[in-house]
Amino acid sequence: MIQVGVVGYGTIGKRVADAVVAQRDMEVVGVAKTSPNFEAETAVSKGFELYAAVEERRELFDEAGIPVAGDLDALVDAADVIVDATPSGIGAQNKETYEAHDTPAIYQGGEDADVADTSFNARANFEDAVGADHVRVVSCNTTGLSRLLAPLREEYGVEKARVTLVRRGGDPGQTGRGPIDDILPDPVSLPSHHGPDVKTIFPDVDIDTLGLKVPATLMHMHSVNVTLEDDADAEAVRDLLAEESRTFLVPGSAGIDGSGKLKEFALDSGRSRGDVWENCIWEESIAVRGDDLYLFQAIHQESDVVPENVDAIRAITDSAGKAESIATTNETLGMGLGRDL
Ligand code: NAD
Hints:
Layout: E1 2-7, H1 11-21, E2 26-33, H2 38-45, E3 50-52, H3 58-63, E4 70-71, H4 72-78, E5 81-84, H5 90-100, E6 105-107, E7 118-120, H6 122-125, E8 134-137, H7 140-155, E9 158-168, E10 184-185, H8 194-198, E11 207-214, E12 220-228, H9 234-242, E13 247-250, H10 259-268, E14 279-282, E15 287-289, E16 292-299, H11 306-316, H12 322-333
Helix pairs in contact: 1-11, 11-12
This protein binds nicotinamide-adenine-dinucleotide.
């Protein structure tokens, strides 16, 4: 069993911990937190050993009556691999602790790419992370774009990708975020950081990305235009994406007209926290005009990177190959092929 330590038990970290528990080849050795909040209590009630991420804040846990097993060094020492899911920039600060213990670590997309030996998306470049010491799972949006571009590149070749990302202002729990009543070009100048980030996965891809922020919390929405090198028609692209395991083709018959109903569907399907790990591509939006492919896809920012972190754990520990890891992660989490959620 691979012993996984989770540092940062917030939106991403708590989901990764639960996904690790669902695997047969790994277990959570402990989770590290800075605040004795409701998520700390949840961690304890789930049976996770809780570690104080910052020594000076340990007494806050004592005052709150939440038992702490040790400090960050103790967790890193006990772990075979760390998943760092701390806020942007903290992972880079924690890196020296992981190196001091010779413990390989997986970082999230809020970190700069140079924190790690390689950026990671299981479908696109699993092998690059095999045996690495430091791996960065790319952000929610870059994960969604990588999953889409990988099969398109293999089947048709990508001449140029242009993507407008309509991004949620904040996660449901991020009460301080906005905008509340506005639509922000964000950033106002080309490119948004997403295009360069996709290039950390596909260095040779020609991609321009524009970003906006809107008053929404549930999901991001991508308006995608990809100029393909080889001839394609919409039906063939639908069939191609239907064979992928982390792209859900939203059928027209479902009556799902946006991210609200997608989340409702996920909750009705019994998904924990209403998580949608897959890219949600509206089947009816897939269109080809000349060499240009168009589609809309929704990305659940809180969860699409979760299966990627599980695969990154197997890659960094060199404990399973790409196909085996992806299949195991999909099966244990309950992900089907393209037309099943
Ligand atoms: P979050 O704020 O929900 O959770 C971060 C957790 O880390 C919190 O529990 C916080 O208390 C804790 N923490 C803060 N400082 C710490 C420290 N020094 N040591 C240990 N824990 C510490 O953040 P999040 O949304 O889960 O984001 C984590 C990372 O994942 C970031 O790099 C982010 O960019 C990336 N990411 C976030 C999303 C998203 O939409 N939420 C999607 C993909 C990737």
